[in-house]
Amino acid sequence: MEPKIKIRDMNFYYGDNKALKDINMNIYEKKITAFIGPSGCGKSTFLRTLNRMNDFIEDTRVEGKITLDDIDIYSKDIDPVELRRKVGMVFQRPNPFPKTIYENIVYGLRKNGVNDKQILDEVVEDTLKSVALYDEVKDKIHKSALELSGGQQQRLCIARAIAMQPEVILMDEPTSALDPISTMKIEELLLDLKENYTIIIVTHSMQQAARISDETAFFLNGEVIEHGETKVIFSNPRDKRTEDYITGRFG
Ligand SMILES: Nc1ncnc2c1ncn2[C@@H]1O[C@H](COP(=O)(O)OP(=O)(O)OP(=O)(O)O)[C@@H](O)[C@H]1O
How far, in Å, from the CA of 46 to the mean position of ligand 1? Predict the structure, then answer.
């Protein structure tokens, strides 16, 4: 299978600090890829290079090449806004806008000039169903999203990302602020969503990576030490450092 995303000889700098070193990786379509590794090893930085969110941070620089469907995402012909529509993002803390549930979901569409009520109504219903939130909120769609629980807010943020019809969804520790039940619901949701989307998730929980991901990449000090099938990484890692990390010797 052709990789959806290819990363070749990639380095990333914050000023003089080389935060990512010589990254080469393939990311496959409709799989869940987990990034694991100790704090500060570059997982979030790497995630943000994939939809150019690092462009917003001053004095940063990327070397090497990242392609999405064989198109160089750092080429000057690429519109980063359109890239971020294709490669959506969900953050660690649920961050709904202080608006209604409905307006949260249609926010991006309205920004793109879609205002047809029938279309927006359909998108709201479809996306709420696809994140398994519809039954819980169908009577308060026009109430503030801030009234939802943390887990519901995070599912709403996933719905907001999906409403833009992305191909890839980047998730930076999406359950670290949630209780175990909400976490389980999000994990189940991700397993459903991977039928339609390519998902990349940063997680501090090795159990979570083992439960839901198809592929795992282990990061250490800005390098990818090992990347492969999750069951192989967790049962038979090649590198001693991966083994030490997954067995809890450090991190
Ligand atoms: N906005 C920034 N400006 C300057 N340096 C940064 C910035 N964000 C991250 N860094 C540096 O880049 C390196 C990697 O950080 P990053 O947040 O990507 O790691 P991480 O593996 O995601 O960590 P964590 O698991 O704690 O979120 C660290 O040395 C960090 O200090």
Answer: 9
Residue 57 alpha carbon, nearest atom of ligand 1: 1
The domain that holds 64 is classified in CATH as: 3.40.50.300
Q: Is residue 63 one of the residues assigned to a domain? A: yes
Going from the Cα of 173 to the center of ligand 1, the distance in angstroms, rounded, reads 14
ipTM attached to this prediction: 0.96
Q: Which of 10, 11, 14, 203 is the pocket-test mutation for ligand 1 (most atoms within 8 Å of CB)?
A: 14
Pocket of ligand 1 (CB under 6 A): 14, 19, 37, 39-45, 57
Residue 189 lies in a domain: yes
Strand blocks (E) in the chain: 5-14, 17-27, 32-36, 60-68, 71-72, 87-90, 168-172, 198-202, 215-220, 223-229
* Residue 52 within any structural domain of the chain: yes
- Could you tell me the distance, in angstroms and rounded to a whole number, from the CA of residue 71 to the centre of ligand 1? 27
Taken in order 37, 94, 213, 248, the sign of the CA dihedral is positive
Domain count within the chain: 1
Q: Which pLDDT tens digits describe the chain residue by residue (251 residues)? A: 889 999 999 999 999 999 999 999 999 999 999 999 999 999 999 999 999 999 999 999 999 999 999 999 999 999 999 999 999 999 999 999 999 999 999 999 999 999 999 999 999 999 999 999 999 999 999 999 999 999 999 999 999 999 999 999 999 999 999 999 999 999 999 999 999 999 999 999 999 999 999 999 999 999 999 999 999 999 999 999 999 999 988 77
Instruction: Residue 18: give the domain boundaries.
Output: 5-90+166-246
